[in-house]
Amino acid sequence: MSSEKTETQADKAPLLRGRDVAAFIAIGAVVAMPWLVSKSAVPWWLGAATLAVGLALAVLSAIDVETQRLPDFLTLPLIAAGVALPAMIERDAIWWHAAGAALGFLTLWAVGRAYLSYRGRAGLGLGDAKLLAAAGAWLGPAGLPSVLLIAAFGALGGVAIAWWRGIDVSTSTAIPFGPFLALGMWATWLYGPLA
Question: Which of 104, 124, 101 is nearest to 113 (CA)?
Answer without folding.
Answer: 124
